């Protein structure tokens, strides 16, 4: 009797479980998961079992943005059975803050950012002083840097601020003569190397009135460098204007930025038809067209470096970020052509102002640094205006591109899938210059240089 009763109870339990799992076949690891911002969450990995079924037949509705804290709904559905859960994404981790001590003069504006080497967090972080520095105080003082994210997580680090009375003038580091090619449009300020013990950006005043860039010879530039503590150095720097075999020749350097693209092959066909050479400042955004880079190189065109990513926010966030991007595109070019390139064009040109949004003063640094690293950068003195939009007419591009104002012309075009009117205008532009006796050369490091005045 007892055995029968026991078996009946067991059978009833199995029946009840069977009924329960029939109506609730979806078993989950967590009913309402809590996950940290920035971590991976796979809703299928939260499934423990599908009773009497296969997980392949499970459907999930809803999305979880693991980069944004909040509560997200997910619905698991197996046949006509559904289970809805809430997934909570939270930010509970404090920012990771690396700091450095700062030694500076009495003039620099002191901000918390000066002390930060690196900061990492999954959300926006604000920096502040826990104790306000005595800005005019000479000597050393201890400060606390507070990093707080938008969810209230915070980190505090101790630093030392040392303020000195600066009485040391900047030092002009140019020991050898600056070499320029006859007829080049040079920004001499970009070639002056000046260093100060406390001011990273001394102000420069140049007197170039004694330099005749059209006549080979040795000249002097008078340089005055002033740091923010008003220490001044005056010095003459030699300039050697070297004879340019291309000077007094009428030359057009056709340059194409942003490629390769589906239009690159059309441009190459036109250049081949008219027997002219050009320069392609390439990017890494369209690897499926990289064979066109190799074809351009093998046809005798120059391959220059524009940018790998063309992401202004990243490229111009710091000088290190710029050169990381430049090294990446140069490695790509070397893998295609077998050799590195030493000619570059800055995204937006050296005169771009958008870089100031991400790193004030970076262009003034970069124009010097690229020269020091063995590159020559090229801006332009004639623009096709095709950067103004994707609907610029063929006629407008021809009008903007055709001029006999200069004997040596660096002409800017853009190479992308949307620049069909640029391709259509190219034959007429080539004919215009050929009819006026211009030759077409690819750029090299020794070519006629056009440099804009930097604005950042």
From TrEMBL:
Residues 250-441 form the NodB homology domain. Gene3D superfamilies: Glycoside hydrolase/deacetylase, Immunoglobulins. CDD domains: CE4_SmPgdA_like. The keyword Transmembrane helix applies. PROSITE patterns: NODB. GO terms for molecular function: hydrolase activity, acting on carbon-nitrogen (but not peptide) bonds. PANTHER family: GLYCOSYL TRANSFERASE-RELATED, POLYSACCHARIDE DEACETYLASE YHEN-RELATED. This is Polysaccharide deacetylase. GO terms for biological process: carbohydrate metabolic process. Keywords: Membrane, Transmembrane, Transmembrane helix. SUPFAM superfamilies: Glycoside hydrolase/deacetylase (SSF88713). The chain crosses the membrane at residues 5-23.
